[in-house]
Amino acid sequence: MAHTKFEGTGVALITPFTSDNQVDYTALGSLLEHVIEGGVEFLVVFGTTGEPITISKQEKTSILDFVCTKVNKRLPIVVGCGGNNTDEVIEAASNIDSSRFDAILSVVPYYNKPNQRGMYAHYKAVAEASTVPVLAYNVPGRTGCNMEAETSIKIAHEIPNIIGLKEASPSVEQFTYIKRSVPKDFLVISGDDSIVVPHMSLGAAGAISVTANAMPRMYSNMVRLCKANKFPEALDLHMQLIEFTDSLFMEGSPAGVKAALHYMGIVQNTVRMPLVPVTQKHYDYIASLVKQLQ
Hints:
With 294 residues, this protein is of the alpha/beta class. It has helices at residues 25-37, 57-71, 86-94, 116-129, 140-143, 149-158, 172-181, 196-201, 216-227, 231-247, 255-263, 280-293; strands spanning 8-12, 42-45, 77-80, 103-107, 134-138, 162-167, 187-190, 206-209. 45% of the residues lie in helices and 13% in strands. The protein has an eight-stranded parallel barrel, surrounded by four helices.
């Protein structure tokens, strides 16, 4: 089955906080309207960018209720549902309400550094428990281990409920081998904003983006141009965005994109420890780039 609802641009939503570190639902509502009006195709709640590690279970339930109500079926919603305790991930995946959410995004287990057989076993168990389709997520820069192309390909062919992979390794070669060998309807999604156009040229179904929180229209237009094989036009947008995109990660993510959204008047400039806001110097730099793009 083709899962076209997850093609194009998915935005890895930040979680806005107030200055006293509470969830800022007013800002979250504004952010949702900002990205929906900007033309993104789907939403990802509690990806890495959403700071889920620092959000309580009660807060997560309240945030998901709010997002579902606010979005009101206008776009598909993917829920981040990962961790390094397989049993806990299974429990969370088995409790996802399939009438409200469209898929889960589940990261390669971090810190305990499983080998390739362990990664496969983890994903098989999670996929069998999940009430909705699963997007796997390989991000070795954060997890400390890389899910190799052979493992991703094996998962794509052998685990039916895993419908795609967000690939965020820095290796375009690895992306190429994965795309070459997975089934045609298996979604290979770019997870790195700085190389999204190369990924799209290799047949990516789309991207799950940090940058699209702040610049949803430019970013989603770029991805749509790639899907239409209009790569010169897409490359022009990529070149306009690249310095801004890189600025969002220089002092840590999502601190960078929260600084941009704060300057744009959408959220407060608050992250939860151990993250800290960007320095004033870097904030001013991000603000200057936002001015150029608006």
